[in-house]
Automatic annotation (TrEMBL):
Belongs to the glutamine synthetase family. Residues 132-466 form the GS catalytic domain. This is Glutamine synthetase. Keywords: Ligase, Magnesium.
Amino acid sequence: MTKRKKPTKAPEDAIRGTKSIEDAREWLRARGIEDIECIVPDQAGVARGKMMPVGKFLTGPTMSMPGSILTQTITGDYPPDDEDYKSDEADNDILFEPDFSTLAVVPWESDPTAQIIHDGYHRDGRPVETAPRQVLRRMVELYQHQGWKPVVAPEIEFYLVKPNTDPDYQLEPPTGRSGRPEAARQSYSIAAINEFDDLFDDIYDFSEAQGLEIDTLIHEEGAAQMEINLLHGDPLALADQVFLFKRTIREAALRHDMYATFMAKPMSREPGSAMHIHQSVVDAETGRNIFSDADGDPTPEFFSFIGGSQKYLPAVMCMLAPYVNSYRRLVRSSSAPVNTQWGYDNRTVGLRVPNSSPAGRRLENRLPSSDANPYLAIAASLACGYLGLIESQKPGEPVSGSANSDEIDLPRSILEAVSVFEECEELVEIFGKRFVSTYRAIKQAEYETFMQVISPWEREFLLLNV
């Protein structure tokens, strides 16, 4: 009997991504797309770019934008020049090339609209050193040169809150279908998720339309705090998914008169929000997990990856916890880690080894907060493991009890974090001096604007007492 061949899908039938501009032309035509969002993730993970008619995009998909968009702070300002950081006085354009594998619809738009993520290049063809997507790609290439392929699976926590139009007022949980806001811890509660069924239906529908795959959705510990887990895969593809999921969840929440926030610590009495990153490394040729040997036991490479993470993660905290608010999450005796201890199935450590089969052996980095740029957080986490592998680092002893009541063994502020990053020669070498000095300058400028705001704490305790 002759085996019947499965019909080959036409390029325009794919939900997400095409291989070329020719395939993209058919994909856009088949869907009647009128406009396309050409987007670039900046240092904060904010989508920058241009909206243009499809006809214009197809006649010249490369777009140019000022290079300064990659030096912009979260407040829209720009860092001042100093000894190591120099801005481009002419504010020259850089080129952005579309990655056709990221082409997808924008399901919340009223008119037929698509989106596509772009990569930054200098006019001589070199990747732009400060573009977050290129930073992650460079880190993956370090693994490729060793015959390895990193695999990641992010978990993203976020809060749903009532609309807040005055920043002087504290955030509050939203009202669900019962007509009452949450007032108690609801970890893993199905009923608490059901309070927002209509919203989550939109999130799932929007995600499916974009070809984004959700592994699980759970209710986390905080009031109206949720977590979405993604399937494991290629680091760049997963960073793209986190980037797009954040947009998707925010847009869905707005449809239901709510905000979705990825702030690390949006409410003082509630737990912080994390972006946990599960990581493993496979042999590029065989696909074998290098963290397990033929007998299923952990390999020296596995422990070196842990050792490198323990040694270098404090020096990349500025990318794992990028804002002043991020450090409010890292407090003792809470659900957040305060050091780089590691342990088996221990949620109080910064580095957890989940229960798994030998093929699924991995290390979970629990330090990043949900406000982190996914490209930079994944790049930073992989960089630490890579250095551990190259240097054959040895980890400390695993912790079996509680580790988050110990002393805080991490930078305590963004200024301390960027200083430690800039002083680590090994990390400067693999991230590049240009990126390190630019990122440091941005974070220092953001801190200066924060210092211009007088907090309620200062009015409460200093106004009449000092």
